[in-house]
Design goal:
Number of domains of chain A: 2
CATH topology of the largest domain in chain A: Dna Topoisomerase Vi A Subunit, Chain: A, domain 2
Number of helices of chain A: 7
Radius of gyration of chain A: 21 Å
Number of strands of chain A: 6
Structural class of chain A: alpha/beta
Largest sheet of chain A: 4 strands, parallel
Distance between the termini of chain A: 67 Å
Shape of chain A: globular
Strand content of chain A: 5-15%
Oligomer: homodimer
Strand order of the largest sheet of chain A: 4-3-5-6
Largest interface: A-B, 50 and 50 residues
Order of helices and strands of chain A: HHHEEEHEHEHEH
Helix content of chain A: 40-55%
Chain lengths: 197, 197
């Protein structure tokens, strides 16, 4: 076998999502062949992220500042709160650049199979935000999966009675979508939610 | 967008083989969620590999010692030299544990398309080893691709005339291989190289 230092690095890399033992080995060899141009900068970048990035106590986003750049941006509508499953989904919406409010990261969705109940998610924090006033609209941007929709229903129930507007992302044919390739559920939803022209 | 520290790390991770921007983002979030249990050990392991691992000047393997553990192992037959494309292939043969000689890593295979000629590979080093005596057998364990076989033919030509036995890995049906699923080339090769029982 190769040196224990290499085995240890392969072992740790292989646990990353989208990585396995084989791709971890290839990555280690890639880095060893580019020690100065890639390996050294990667280690520096990792240290920097590890030392400087913290979870925002308000929304749950990952950033260098507390509160994060989004929560402390006075140009954004702090009364419009978009509820997302995780930071990856928050980043996806930010990349799309369509939303100028703030976020609330749940940290997951309800899942009986995975043993994730309301206590495991940042749901109480969301209710506290709404109860303390200041929230005008809650936009549920949760995955269109069974778990995502269960979570959305649960949140709608819990938010019932608060003076806040509740909305969710629309469903339908995605941009560039060929009807022939779409699943039946999406087609049914797109028909039921058809718009007048 | 997220913090520049995170963007920089995603940018560097995305260049690794088997990684792209999306999986790099997921890896960064995974690490941020496991700062102490995974992120810190990963950085330490990377530093250790970067500082301690060097290419063996004799065979080209990556190891902590110079020469590497394989080249300095007196239990291995130093006269049997297995020629491989890269360190990944060397490790694959070591995992299989069938070979008790030493290796010679070429650093690639000849490829007109990629502009890789004999000068780019460690071919002269191999010829020097053979010319200096001590090599009894050269085993070509190169990929069964057009480039791999071109390289094997080229090496056989260059080694012609030296008092050394030349061999190559056998071709045929892989263990567990269903004939129905094998490509025509492999089936033809397996037929041509059929063995008497």
């Amino acid at each position: 076998m190769s040196a224990p230092e290499i085995e240890q690095l392969i072992h740790l890399l292989a646990k990353l999502p989208a990585f396995g033992p084989r791709s971890a080995r290839r990555a280690v060899l890639f880095l060893l062949n580019k020690k100065e141009s890639h390996f050294a900068p990667l280690i520096t970048a990792m240290q920097s992220v590890r030392d400087k990035i913290v979870a925002c106590p308000i929304c749950g986003n990952m950033d260098t500042s507390v509160p994060c750049a989004i929560c402390s941006d006075s140009n954004r509508n702090q009364g419009q709160i978009c509820v997302v499953r995780d930071v990856a989904d928050l980043w996806a919406l930010e990349r799309a650049g369509v939303f100028k409010g703030v976020y609330h990261v749940l940290g997951g969705v309800l899942s009986a199979l995975d043993g994730i109940g309301p206590e495991e998610l940042r749901i109480q924090e969301l209710l506290d935000k709404v109860a303390s006033g200041g929230a005008e609209e809650i936009i549920l941007a949760l995955p269109a999966t069974v778990e995502g929709q269960t979570t959305a229903h649960y949140l709608a129930d819990r938010l019932d009675g608060y003076p806040v507007k509740l909305s969710a992302l629309s469903r339908g044919v995605p941009v560039g979508g060929e009807l022939d390739y779409l699943d039946d559920g999406t087609l049914q939803m797109a028909f039921k939610s058809r718009r007048g022209l």
